[in-house]
Amino acid sequence: MLSLKACSKSFKKTIALNEFSCNFNSGIYGLLGPNGSGKTTLLRCICGLLSVENGNINTENSVIGYLPQQFGMMQQLTLYEMMQYFATLKNIPKVSQEKEIKRCVEMVNLSDKTDNKISSLSGGMVRRAGIAQAIMGDPKIILFDEPTTGLDPEERMRFKSLIKKIRNDKTIIISTHIVSDVETVCDNIVIINKGQNIFQGTGTQVAKIAENKTYLISDNHERSLSDNCYIKDRILKDNNNYLYILSKKPLDNGISISPSIEDGYLCALKNI
Questions:
Q1: What is the pLDDT of residue 183?
Q2: This prediction's pTM
Q3: FRET partner for 251 with CA separation of 20 to 30 A, picked from 17, 145, 193, 222?
Q4: Percent helix, strand, coil in the chain (nearest 5)?
């Protein structure tokens, strides 16, 4: 449904996308990468806000829903008026707008706020309104850039439930640097770093990158660690202090543990 081939984009001397290629079929994709890796530029190119300098993006002329990283609305309008504005921009017929607006605000738990001015809404509510406008009109491709920013734990869970509910016959891309946002909801994960697609696969396949590379060792051995080791965390277990280590080489003084998706993601980024 969505394909990118050798897409490149630069801003002066900064290379944002470096021959990025990927095929996105129907399903939920997590676009994982550190800040500055090219995630936002990629989404902006897909929805046409930016043009790639080289390469090709094929959306099969699908309607695209988009939640930008920085989402703003007209402060003096009510939420309902703002949603009407978005519905008009999306060419939703006037006779259908009320029903569609009601459906979308209900899905993000904002039905009781439609008469409130945008200026009175909290940051989390504005973010949820942004999610509502992105799904309005039943687009076949939906792009979410850091969608859970500003949401409390309950609303983060509601967002994940919403995504699963609307997923049928859609390509949904969730861009984030937070692994927990994608590990329970995404069918596939694309890891982007320095503008390149460095890995694509299921969560299980991402975790496997760190297979036989994850260890717990006593913090007494910290000075003996080589440069090939990465200290992911410090853990208190059974009243003892341990280091959570990612290592290319086996650690004889370490306890091997099962890797997580986050471990695989870090190994991919740091070439471990």
A1: 85
A2: 0.92
A3: 193
A4: 35, 30, 35
